[in-house]
Amino acid sequence: MRRIYLDYAASTPMAPEVKKAMEPYFGYLSNKGFGNPGSLHFFGQEAMAAVDKSREIIAKAIGADFREIIFTGSATEANNLVLRGSLAELRRQDAKLRRQDAKPRGNRIIISAIEHPSILETARDLEKEGTEVIYIPVDKNGIVELKKIKKALNERTILVSIMYANNEIGTIEPIKEIAEIIQRFKATNASESPKNIIQRSESPKNIFVNSDKFVVWDRYPLFHTDAVQAFQYLNCQVSDLKVDLMTLSAHKIYGPKGIGVLYVKEQNNILPFIVPIITGGGQEFGLRSGTENVPLIVGFSEAVKIISHSRPKEIKRMNQLSQYFWKEIKKIFPKAEINGIEPGRDKRLPNICNIFFPGYSAEELLIKLDLNGLAVSTGSACSARAFKPSEVLRALGLSQSRIKNSLRFSFGKFLTMSDIKEALKKIKAVL
């Protein structure tokens, strides 16, 4: 039986070029680059050269500087570093710089209701420790409510984290508009706050205590976006998005699993206020200790080169596949409905279709399709094994029965129109 994979949003097959690029660095004595990048001898410097070259490639792809690319063990780790690291640094600076009678600056973070579990669950964990978390609702298509973000911002807000494109329904969030709201808030806050200053710190200069005795930092709030799903199809130039932090993942773009990237904006030759959550040898400019995984880093950069060159062509091809797929699904099962925005419309990724099948349990349908050689998903792979109802679909205001009867189909590089046609035959046979 020929199997067809329609779960590219969960993970992508590794591109042959990526495998070839990685092979010399896997640690065999006959290979180059097996040394520890931290070693000063030839073998170590050879490995570090590969890491540096990869960092340059990824930095160039998003318009960042060399030092702004931090390699992590996964996108989940990068997201944890953002949330936990920014909170930890602010608490550390609060304790160090505030007057004895001044209150801590605050610990409010703002996220959307449809973030990836690595953001949602981390935020919930931080809530247990006393962090205030504001969950911004979304409309029926999954787009965050900008007015609610604007209203939620205050001088105690440390971080805003809104994903660029959703992994379950493919909705693209208005990241540029959110960045503008945050920048306007910072500008207003900075212009008003000096009127109430009762204590200023000279080092760093952007810290003061206002008349309400709150430690205030005009660098905050930081703005982070999880661009894991977006990177393959959308503009991720950091100068355009105006983000302080951005998360990427290799295995969503035909690279290896076990390697992620966190873009960390540098200002005045200093990385922003964020501290490591993994300590040790101080690798990755002090933000992520641990010996660099050279083959995976090389694989990541090779995958970035591939998608950077093929992006326009793949966007067009994915749009054609998804629109054809949805049109044929409606012929097979007229009662089917799209969750989120329909294929072919704006503000959605071209490769994700989340479909409601009335009268069919998604769990049972998934199993039947798998037995017929078709791999699909009920939603985020990080929650799928437990068959937990989708929090993303719930945030759209959908009924529990609709959530339980919905499947995600996602397409990618190695999928052809003939694969789509065969997949539709399998779906028709099961339905």
CATH architecture field of the largest domain:
3-Layer(aba) Sandwich
Q: Cα-atom Rg, whole angstroms?
A: 23 Å
**Whole-number tally of structural domains:** 2
Helix count, per DSSP?
Answer: 13
Q: How are strands sequenced across the largest beta sheet?
A: 2-11-10-9-5-3-4
CATH topology type of the largest domain: Aspartate Aminotransferase, domain 2
Largest sheet: 7 strands, mixed
Q: Please trace the helix and strand order, writing H or E for each element.
A: EHHEHEHEHEHEEEEHEEHEEHEHHHEH
Structural category: alpha/beta
Q: At the first level of CATH, what is the class of the largest domain?
A: Alpha Beta
User: What's the β-strand tally?
Assistant: 15
User: Which stretches are low in confidence, meaning pLDDT under 50 for 5 or more residues running?
Assistant: 194-216
Helix content: 25-40%
Envelope shape = globular
The pLDDT mean sits at 90
Q: Which homologous superfamily in CATH is the superfamily of the largest domain? A: Type I PLP-dependent aspartate aminotransferase-like (Major domain)
- Compute the separation of the termini in Å: 19 Å
Strand content: 5-15%
Structure, briefly:
With 431 residues, this protein is an alpha/beta fold. The chain contains 13 helices and 15 strands. The protein folds into 2 domains: 4-13 and 311-430, Aspartate Aminotransferase, domain 1 (Alpha-Beta Complex), CATH 3.90.1150.10; 51-302, 3-Layer(aba) Sandwich (Aspartate Aminotransferase, domain 2).
